[in-house]
From TrEMBL:
<dbReference type="InterPro" id="IPR020955">
    <property type="entry name" value="Uncharacterised_Atu4866"/>
</dbReference>
<dbReference type="InterPro" id="IPR038646">
    <property type="entry name" value="Atu4866-like_sf"/>
</dbReference>
<protein>
    <recommendedName>
        <fullName>Protein Atu4866</fullName>
    </recommendedName>
</protein>
<dbReference type="Pfam" id="PF11512">
    <property type="entry name" value="Atu4866"/>
</dbReference>
Length: 83
């Protein structure tokens, strides 16, 4: 999953872990997640919790809107340029 500007990338791994990159900072946030229907519960490795919901193929994760990799709404230029 990736924000439209490409700055934030979130990988949901098949082992129930996630890895989130912010700009050039790889693994900025890591932790575990569980899925129930279209709802995702996150617990990062520091204990912080967050939620997300997938609607119409878009992940709404707290204040973020993320799209599947390759979605036409994701800009190609400037990917990861903010940090």
């Amino acid at each position: 999953w990736v924000t439209a500007d490409g700055f934030i990338r979130q990988e949901l791994l098949p082992n129930g872990r996630y890895d989130e990159a912010r700009g050039r900072r790889r693994s900025a946030y890591t932790g575990r997640y569980t899925v129930s229907g279209n709802h995702i519960d996150y617990v990062d490795d520091t204990g912080f919790t967050a939620t997300g919901d997938v609607r119409d193929g878009v992940l709404f994760h707290e204040h973020l809107v993320l799209y599947r990799e390759g979605d036409q709404r994701v800009r190609r230029e400037g990917t990861g340029s903010r940090g």
